[in-house]
Structure prediction request, 132 residues.
Amino acid sequence: KQWYQRRVRGFTEGEEVPDVEELEAVLKPLAMEHLDTCEETWREATFPDLTAKFRVLDSAINQIGRDIPSSQLIYLQTVEDVMQYYSTPVEEPRYLELRPQSLPFNVNIAKDNFRELPKTKDEELAEELAEE
Prediction:
């Protein structure tokens, strides 16, 4: 029987959702710079190509501090879609509260499953030097 663990970086549950003014302050300059739009229609601006979409979303992720999973990228066609994504609160699914009958046969949830990796020779040497 093989076991696989996957660490996922992303959000933390209960994370603060940015308010509309904060989102506008971040996304409006990005849309005007990268999408060549005017002040009245910046929300409806679409991404003309993948390069412009990458630039806007990369800057938004860095400034807002919340990643966008790759599975959601296809749904973000306008700046308004990006605002809607960031306005949606994030709730982490509670897998441990699921009934075992509702899980597929090949899924096993291990509670508090943490395995410490053995130390490398460099780590052991660094500990010995730190003790001296």
